[in-house]
Design goal:
alpha+beta; about 15% strand; globular; 5 strands; 6 helices; binds FE2/S2 (inorganic) cluster
Length: about 170
């Protein structure tokens, strides 16, 4: 067993310092060490996108990143989307448009969608498709997910933009 190393990672605005094995994956750190199980593991091979979260405001498949690579970094997971009991506009839109069935892909879809909308408030239909091209869904046929993201873009504009700053506050 490798010697453990101490890492400090800010997750959804809260700082965590933990000793981890160098081989520990970021998704395991989030789910098992911090017990934030909203981030899912679907394939473990960088294929499905269920494990997508934002690391330093970039979407990553956390089954492909070591926890030690997040040392000193900032992670956002699906648990951080709701603020003061209020769902993120994208979560509301997923609910209203039935953008999920089993829900397994949903946390990853949401994080890819949030990244897209924070960086492109007016995405075209094609840009929405490209924005979640790394996330697989076996249930919905994607149509309702696209509709949810498009609607969330409108909702966020109407609310003056659920900005990155707000999301990490
Ligand atoms: S679990 Fe990471 S891409 Fe599937
Ligand atoms: S809702 Fe079941 S995999 Fe997407």
């Amino acid at each position: 067993m490798s010697a453990k190393v101490t890492i400090t990672v800010t997750v959804n605005g809260q700082s965590y310092q933990r000793e981890v094995e160098p081989r520990l994956l970021l998704v395991q750190f989030i789910r098992e060490t911090l017990a934030l199980t909203g981030t899912h593991i679907g394939c473990d091979t960088t294929y499905c996108g269920a494990c997508t979260l934002l690391l330093n405001n970039e979407p990553v498949k956390s089954c492909t990143v070591l926890a030690v690579q997040a040392d000193g970094g900032e992670v956002r997971t699906v648990e951080g989307l709701e603020k003061d009991g209020k769902l993120h506009p994208l979560q509301t839109a997923f609910s209203e448009h039935h953008g999920l069935q089993c829900g397994y892909c949903t946390p990853g879809m949401l994080m890819s969608g949030v990244y897209l909308l924070e960086n492109n408030p007016n995405p075209t239909a094609l840009e929405i498709k490209k924005g979640i091209q790394g996330n697989l869904c076996r249930c919905t046929g994607y149509k309702n997910i696209y509709a949810a993201i498009a609607d969330a873009a409108e909702k966020m504009k109407a609310e003056g933009g659920a900005t990155k700053q707000q999301a990490v506050a």
